[in-house]
């Protein structure tokens, strides 16, 4: 596909025709190619190339600069079985060390210094390279150690979160809906659910009453600006304050 570098497509119809000409016809392959093209377009239009994606290690999120969620990483140890009191105490001690280290990472975000960074690197090695004698625990520690660069991305980028709980919370409502009623019955129903859920959660994050926003639009008052305009204004205010 290198020979097509820099090629532009004016609309979706032209893009689909191009994919077909390249023998890309399967739904999954079209999705992958389209996502790649959209990402390339973002970069072409000066989108932030240094964006960090924090995930639970799902492969589809391993793009751009990738960091791992500490909450998900530690969960492998939390789930270990405690057959004896000795193992129970051992797991408790290791988990305590991990969350103490996590607390230090949060301190580093406030005051990132080269000395602090070096100490955190050393402590990470000490915690996750240790041999406890409990095979399952040692295996979990090794697995976490192998993801060191992604778990310690925060040492390079103190501005990123240490977990992806905000993203998890955003999709939790969809998961609840699926568990209760098996999700929606049609594409239009799904689009309606997604649209109103997105508006509601955006209103909540902006400190705007979802009900007031809906009534403002239904009654065509337009006293409340577009949510996108509010987001842009907030972003500009944050940039000015920094």
Layout of helices and strands, plus pairs?
Elements: H1 12-21, H2 27-44, E1 52-55, E2 65-68, H3 70-78, H4 85-110, H5 114-128, H6 135-145, H7 148-151, H8 153-156, H9 165-181, H10 187-206, H11 210-218, H12 227-241
Parallel strand pairs: 1-2
Describe the structure.
This protein has helices spanning 12-21, 27-44, 70-78, 85-110, 114-128, 135-145, 148-151, 153-156, 165-181, 187-206, 210-218, 227-241, and strands spanning 52-55, 65-68. The radius of gyration is 23 Å and the shape is globular. The model has no long low-confidence stretch (mean pLDDT 85). It is mostly helical. The longest helix has 26 residues, at 85-110. It is built from twelve helices and two strands. Helix content is 65%, strand content 3%. The chain has a two-stranded parallel ribbon. The two termini are 42 Å apart. α3 (70-78) runs antiparallel to α4 (85-110) and α3 packs antiparallel against α6 (135-145). The chain folds into three domains: 2-47, no CATH class; 65-156; 188-242, no CATH class.
Question: Any key phrases for this structure?
Answer:
242 residues, mainly alpha, two-stranded parallel sheet, 2 strands
């Amino acid at each position: 596909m290198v020979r097509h570098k820099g090629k532009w497509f004016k609309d979706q119809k032209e893009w689909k025709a191009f994919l077909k000409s390249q023998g890309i016809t399967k739904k999954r392959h079209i999705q992958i190619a389209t996502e790649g093209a959209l990402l390339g377009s973002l970069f072409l239009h000066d989108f932030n190339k240094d964006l960090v994606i924090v995930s639970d290690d799902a492969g589809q999120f391993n793009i751009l600069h990738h960091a791992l969620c500490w909450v998900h990483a530690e969960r492998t140890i939390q789930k270990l079985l405690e057959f004896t009191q000795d193992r129970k105490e051992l797991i408790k001690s290791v988990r305590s060390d991990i969350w103490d280290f996590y607390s230090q990472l949060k301190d580093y975000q406030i005051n990132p210094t080269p000395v602090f960074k070096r100490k955190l690197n050393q402590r990470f090695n000490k915690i996750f390279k240790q041999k406890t004698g409990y095979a399952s625990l040692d295996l979990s520690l090794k697995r976490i150690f192998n993801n060191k660069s992604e778990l310690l991305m925060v040492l390079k980028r103190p501005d990123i979160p240490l977990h992806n709980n905000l993203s998890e919370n955003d999709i939790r409502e969809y998961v609840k809906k699926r568990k209760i009623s098996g999700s929606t019955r049609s594409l239009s129903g799904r689009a309606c659910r997604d649209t109103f859920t997105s508006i509601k959660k955006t209103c909540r994050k902006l400190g705007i009453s979802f009900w007031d926003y809906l009534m403002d639009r239904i009654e065509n008052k337009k006293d409340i600006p577009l949510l996108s305009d509010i987001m842009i204004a907030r972003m500009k205010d944050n940039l000015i304050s920094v």
